[in-house]
Amino acid sequence: VGPKKEVAECKEKFASSVDPTVSQMFMLDRVFNPEGKSLTPMRGFKYSSWSPLGCDANGRCLLAALTMDNRLSIHANLNRLQWVQLVDLTELYGERLLEAGYKLCKADAPCGELGDFPEFQRRHSMQAPVRMEWSGICTTQQVKHNNECRDVGSVLLAVLFENGNIAVWQFQLPFLGKESITSCNTIESGISSPSVLSWWEYEHNNRKMSGLIVGSAYGPVKIIPVNLKAVKGYFTLRQPVVLWQEMDQLPVHSIKCIPLYHPYQKCSCSLVVAARGPYVFWCLLLISKAGLNVHNSHVTGLHSLPIVSMTADKQNGTVYTCSSDGKVRQLIPIFTDVALKFEHQLIKLSEVFGCVRTHGIAVSPCGAYLAVITTEGMANGLHPVNKNYQVQFVTLKTFEEAAAQLLESSVQNLFRQVDLTDLVRWKILKDKHIPQFLQEALDKKIESCGSTYFWRFKLFLLRILYQSMQKAPSEVTWKPSHEDAKILISDSPGMGSTEDDQEEGTSKQASKQSLGDTGKGVDIDDTAEDSLHQSSDTGGREPMVEKLLEIQAQIEAVEMHLTREHMKRVLGEVYLHTWITENTSIPTRGVCDFLMSDDGYDDRTARVLIGHILKKMNKQTFPEHCSLCKEILPFTDRKQAVCSNGHMWLRCFLTYQSCQSLVYRRCLLHDSIARHPTPEDPEWIKRLLQGPCTFCDSPVF
After folding, report:
1. Which of 364, 366, 410, 483 is most buried when burial is the number of CB atoms within 10 A of its CB?
2. What is the pTM of this model?
3. For the chain, which residues make up each domain, given as ranges?
4. Strand, helix or coil at 603?
5. In Å, what is the CA distance from 211 to each residue of 129, 189, 215, 241, 293?
6. pLDDT digit string, tens, across residues 1-52
7. Would you call 69 helix, strand, or coil by DSSP?
8. How far is Cα 108 from Cα 339, in angstroms, rounded to an integer?
9. Can you say whether the dihedral through the CA atoms of 545, 546, 547, 548 is positive or negative?
């Protein structure tokens, strides 16, 4: 807000002021006085917001975090289990305001002296964030040096301040830090005492419109236009639209915007819902020939206490609200000729978790789970001495619904539907078989369209089935072991393996099952006893081994199919981006020979493609060489390369190059190895290296 020395002098002046309206307001306002002296320290977070998928360098989410002392920063999960702060937006915005003389535009009157308490308040309120929200990913056009235009992804972060101003930051993707900031524009909302913010994104006749919905602690709700000049295909409103204007002192707690399709009007529409006290305010917006139509009303009789949290399933429009007494309401929108109405039903958490107090809810991306933050409720009319916060998960879909949604999904990415796959995983681990209807439906999908997504889904099912057949570990494997890990050399596997050794080998693979079953309430000891009974009986043991070998063979066959399909894609990129007899770092000849080595594999597309590539290569082989001994690395295995001197290198699953360095990447589920891109790599190889895992769709880092 000004030079450090001047700010310190002003703080001392206001704290010791004889005017109680100045001194008391200064001492009690934690924005001015974050240290607080005798007051509790300002530790922790006030609010956080997740970006859409695909914003960081690994294709995952960014996290915008607002601390209790009003510092807004952006963090990213660049390495596994390691969070890094990329930029401090509070500091950058303060520098911008300082350069502009704490004025939004040049025409504004010059600001007063920092020693005046109203000016001191103004400078703080225009920089103290209340809420921040991410927009969806949008496309901008960038002009290259040769005057070509290329589409670049960007995302917007709107930050609402105490004085009602909104700063809209535009970031180029992937977001790497300060250098990825494209612009920052400030909008005046005109809302006094703002409390909540949300993006309004609406699509009509392939034209995307956007705006910002702002709610006030006094009650009003309105949409503010956001002019996105540089964003391709986006439009905004001509003027603000007031959704609710009554100053009825019902503070707006939360706002959600849900895109829906109106079955009667035959067009897309936008449903805005806001929690106001114990009521839900809703507003239906749709564009017709007459212009923008607005229908609004309130849903009453939901809760006897104010709503503390609200979430929405954007796939079907279902809204969930909760109050602190442990009651959750499910609101299902039903369209009428004119607008819509809500059917609501009560979800009593007390029947599931006992007497609890609820503090927040959130629905998973595909609507499979509802996460609820709870603490103990009253016992015998008394509040608990200590509060133990827990995150509970309630399933909202059955296994059959989750499986059907995965089969008909338009996303075709298992990683983006991980909540649905978790329901399927739980069912197979519990029943130890894949349901017949799911197997038949999946086989039909594979036969009809042959998309690799369904092959990856099949691989997922087979792996979980294989895991369910294994013996559960006797103890939880993620807990640190304090036992001595040393073993005698005489007890090495070369001296013969006992049944206990074999069980130890399988315990690592079955660790996921123990964690999953513990969370779902399955008794691990029972599972282990069943497995022991089966293995102790020689007659029952042989069919189990045969079953495991059969599943293993199926897994290998599906993995080989997915590998071949990706090899074809890599060879297609090689053919499109190389000249005659050009040496790329990709082992092209080795991949071609590997594809054609199996006599049972007859793919006309692959044969034609390989024929064209071999013509281009003009009898050249361009083999890879071992960096230690300079011997040739033959391409005999898709996972590793071994030279004649026995040096072994892991192969990158994205480009099939050998990773001859100590640093490489792994997919999230540790399925595959990938190398890091190098500066000398051409653009098309860098693009290949940005892809997800070919087996499980997970990002690689």
Report:
1. 366
2. 0.83
3. 400-469, 551-690
4. coil
5. 19, 11, 13, 10, 16
6. 888 888 888 888 888 888 888 888 888 787 877 776 677 777 889 999 999 9
7. coil
8. 43
9. positive
